[in-house]
Amino acid sequence: MTDKERKVINIILSLLVATGAWFFVVYNYDPMTSVRYSGVPITYTGLDTLANRGYAVAEANYKNVEVTLQQRRIDTASISSEDISVTADVSGLSTGENTVSLHVSGPEGAQVRDVSVKNVTVEIASAASVEIPISVEYSEGYEENAVPLVENKSVEMATVIATEEKLAEIDRVAAVIDPEDLDEQFKAMTLEIAALDKEDNKVINVVIYPETLSFRAAAGYTKEVRLLVPVKDESDDSYERTYTAPETVVIMGKKSIIDSFTGITANEIDIANYYEDSEIPIEFAFPEGVSLAEGQDGLVLTLKAVKKEKEEKEETEENG
Fold first, then answer.
1. Ramachandran region, residue 291 (left: φ > 0; alpha: ψ -120 to 50; beta: rest)
2. 3-state secondary structure string, 118-151?
3. Three-class SS state of 8
4. CATH number of the domain that 36 lies in?
């Protein structure tokens, strides 16, 4: 072995020893450090107990706090604000303003050194409840026209309990799916139900029954296609009937199925027995795997029926 080769081997051995020593010191004698985490959300617990007493959280003066943890330096990269729990128990509060102590805990191996707020002021008011249909949807910002296909929902409606003001903020109640969890094969899922506002933000401090929704879901898409509405009129009377119908409709289904569709034909509508202006529901007999997209229910054919009084009068005058 040459001197050059011995030198290279010695360098490699030195690096290995140094690395091993560093790991030994870090994992056994790692110095502690203080790290401050901002935007840690406060979770208000006991909302269901409060609701059973006929009350709900109307307002709280803090939604999140800053927490300082003392932790091993090596753990810093793996700890985030999501690993910190900040709770306020509201189960025993009464109407009006209440002062509630915060309970804070960090991940294993870390100690809470400081919290920007020790107590919060919570206003309690009378609760109200509403029944809201439960939707299943993708998280915001996913591929255009992509939708989850859902079947076998365990329940269709949710009971939401909150103050009147909170209920007014709610746009819908939904189970939100990560689109990466779905493909074209239906799979069983159980997800938490959340109350959402029009900007897709979660409305907090509300109670929802049930808390979760079970269903089967697969990846789907929507597509706008031509709509043909066959109309039959074999009447022989004194009414003139004219009508209009939507020219397109939005359908949904698995991409492999709906890609081949350019149009849909609705069930035939017989207008012979209509004698006044009407809105006639448009019905469909879809092939398997195809259905109307959300918001497409309630399509109608608009009919106008006019009695031919003028023509009858002219015929009478001619015969007279």
1. beta
2. CEEEEEEEECEEEEEEEEEEECCCCCCCEEEEEE
3. helix
4. 2.170.120.30
In a shared domain, residues 112 and 41: yes
Please identify, among 221, 251, 284, the residue that sits at the C-terminal boundary of a domain.
221
Question: Considering only CA atoms, which of 150, 220, 162, 159 is closest in space to residue 190?
Answer: 150
pLDDT in tens, 10-63: 666 666 655 554 555 555 555 778 889 999 999 999 999 999 999 999 999 999
Q: Is residue 26 part of a domain?
A: no
Sign for the pseudo-dihedral over CA of 308, 310, 312, 315: negative
Structural domain contains residue 320: no
Percentage of the chain lying above the pLDDT 70 cut? 87
CATH number at residue 298: 2.170.120.40
pLDDT at 111: 87
Q: Which residues of 169-196 are buried (b: 16+ CB within 10 A; e: fewer)?
A: bbeebbbbbebeebeeebeebebebbbb
Residue 209 pLDDT greater than 90, yes or no: yes
Q: What is the pLDDT of residues 110-131, one digit of tens each?
A: 888 999 999 999 999 999 999 9
Is residue 216 domain-shared with residue 257, that is, in the same domain? no
Query: Is 6 within the bounds of a domain?
Result: no
Using the 3D structure, point to which of 106, 126, 146 is the last residue of a domain.
Answer: 126
Sign (positive or negative) of CA dihedral 181, 214, 129, 95: negative
User: Is 312 strand, coil or helix?
Assistant: helix
CB 149 within 8 A of CB 188: no
On whether both 144 and 179 belong to a single domain, the answer is: yes
* pLDDT over 70 (residue 285): yes
What per-residue confidence (pLDDT) applies to 71? 84
Burial class (CB in 10 A: 0-12, 13-18, 19+), 263: exposed
**Domain span at residue 44?**
32-126
Highest mean pLDDT among 43-47, 79-83, 108-112, 307-311: 43-47
* Residue 249 placed within a domain: yes
